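Box S1 | Example of a co-folding query
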Amino acid sequence: MTHDDFTAQTAAEFLSRFGRAADGVWSAPGRVNLIGEHTDYNEGFVLPFAIDRRTWAAVGLRDDNAARVTSTFSADEVEVELATVSAQTLDGWSAYPLGIAWALGQNGVELVEQRGFDAHIASDVPVGAGLSSSAAIECAVAIALDERWKLGIDRPTLARVGQLAENEAVGAPTGIMDQSASLLGRRDSAVFLDCRSLRSEIVDLGFADAGLEIVIIDTKVSHAHATGGYAARRASCEAGAAALGVDSLRDVSVADLDRARELLDDETFRRVRHVVTENARVLATVRALRESGPLAIGEILNDSHVSMRDDFEISVAELDLAVVAAREAGAIGARMTGGGFGGAAIALTPSHLVADVTAHVLEAFAAARFTAPEIFTVAPSDGAKREL
Ligand code: GLA
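Box S1 (continued) | Returned holo structure for alpha-D-galactopyranose
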């Protein structure tokens, strides 16, 4: 289905479910993180881009104060009163769209004075692949409500609203990267974000001109950041920063690592070393893209994977195999992307080798008796926008 078809179908579905036309249709993309993993909540640097897989939200205001949401991923219709919506009582998929309404309230919007809304949501961002299907829902709803409620909130602030919904309504202690990529992304470009100042720059990727594609290898190994490893890594980073006497690991440089090794236990040291060297790799990637173009970043992506595998320990056997097999078949660089413990790897691949990389990775997974991965390419795309 084309994106125009999605827009039209989401509007048509709104009409049939709610018996009136939507006020409009808004969409927001998923994201791939090119590099800069587990750096966002350490006030570091990230370099994600928005992808050509999106979520559509058809939204229409109501005359009362109720918010009602439906979607293509569940038969449930969920309804709340805006005046009493609370992060604690939201759950399931509706916590993403309704969490945005709640988070806008936390941001100073008087929810009791707003008109309620109906929303119908559809998506072609794969769920659970580490491509931020959740941020795509949040951001589509955030720009729709911002426009229809005439709030005039800037996009960096809307990203924070999305993060708050994710942290409190969904319960995942994630950083600011995913929502920033979804809201600020630009075609053929990445978003270079300083997660301390929240200043961002658009960096030209030039993949097409260099004859390169980004291949996604979705391992189908599921990850959930509301539980387990993600929160544990975050806690290790906070413990490392405290032991080193800094506010966040952003304040630790590569030159400080020798001293850190003396002060920290081995595991905490390796967690810290990942974050510190990953920040340096983001800066090196931006420099290489600007000075030499994307053919120059392959080794940096490979180094990032090794650091996540050995120091941060967030990779899994399937991700490691995806990376190795993709490189064997000609990818110039590959790494796992996103929070880890499953999800997807990315492989920066010459266009004429995409078929070889795909076939070789599938063979390697079959030989290892792993579940067959889903493999597809994505293109750096525009961020959230009104479609209709
Ligand atoms: C998840 C989180 C992000 C970020 C990444 C790791 O995608 O949502 O905030 O922390 O993991 O880089």
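Residues 33, 37-38, 40-41, 174-175, 177-178, 225, 338-339 surround alpha-D-galactopyranose (CB under 6 Å). The first strand starts at residue 24 and ends at 35.
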